[in-house]
Structure formats: C-alpha cells, structure tokens
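Troubleshooting: if your tokenizer reports a length mismatch, compare your output against this known-good record of 173 residues.
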Amino acid sequence: MDFDAIRQSVLGFVELHKAWTPLVAGVLAFCESLAFLSLLVPATVILVGIGALIGASDIPFWPVVIAAAIGAALGDWISYEFGRYFKEDAKGFWPMSRYPEPTRRAEDFLRRWGAGAVAIGRFFGPVRAVIPLIAGIFGVNRLPFQVANVLSAAVWAFVLLAPGAGLLSWFQG
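Known-good structure output:
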C-alpha cells in the first residue's frame, strides 16, 4: 500500500467515523513522533487533512488537538527512554545505522541547543523523531526534556490542525 492510499483510507475513515477523530489523530501523532516508525507513516500530511475535515464538518477542534499533542508527546517520550536505555547501542539500529550523517547532524543540533532542540526539532520533519532518541542517548535530564516535549507537542498539534480547521478565516473575519 502506498502513502497516498494510506492517506485516503485514513481520511475516509475519519469522514465516516467522526467520533474516532481524536483517537486517530493521537495515534498518527504518536507514529510521527516515534523514532523509526515515523519513517513509515505519512502522519503529517494526514493530520493536515484531518484539520481540513474539522473545518468542513462538525468535528470538535480541541479534543483532536489535545489527542494529537498527547500522542506526539508519548512518541517522543518513548524514543527518549529508548535512547536512555540503549545509549550508544541505539545508533546500531536501523535507520540510524544506515544514515550516520543525519544522526550526526541531530547530535550536533542537540549539543548546541540542549533540551531546546527537542522543541525546535519537532517542527523539522527529518529530525523530529530522532532528536528525542539522541537526547536519551546523551542523557539529557528528564524534566527539561519533558517540558520541551510536552509544550512543543501542544504547539505542533495546534499548528498542524488549526489552518485547515478554519483558524486563518477566523482571524480574517
């Protein structure tokens, strides 16, 4: 199944089963934020599409944003804990073992920005799921990590869903 077919299937499901939208958004955000799995699920595109469905129907906005934020924060948290547990050995797992250059760039980014790299990195697709893993490998303290994780997850979910849900027309109106 290709990414476009996945996108169409998920958006079709959400259209037919609106009550499931928060759960679907949460699972997608989790997949998008979990190291390794994020490469296999076209979640960002689907979440933007869900935002458009919110704007075109009676799906409540805030429960979907909250669920997406929780899913994103949980995905980053698990990636972080994976890195803390496996330390440097985590770099031996696919795809990090196959793509050492992006991994090195994520390490440099984290060295420069510390826990703030988690918040900044959430908005850059290629490193979104790798930064929390690297933060765990480096042993970034849990509290600063979680503060950056949760706050950036909430902003990220809002930014993805709000434009399609009508935020731009609300500001213009």
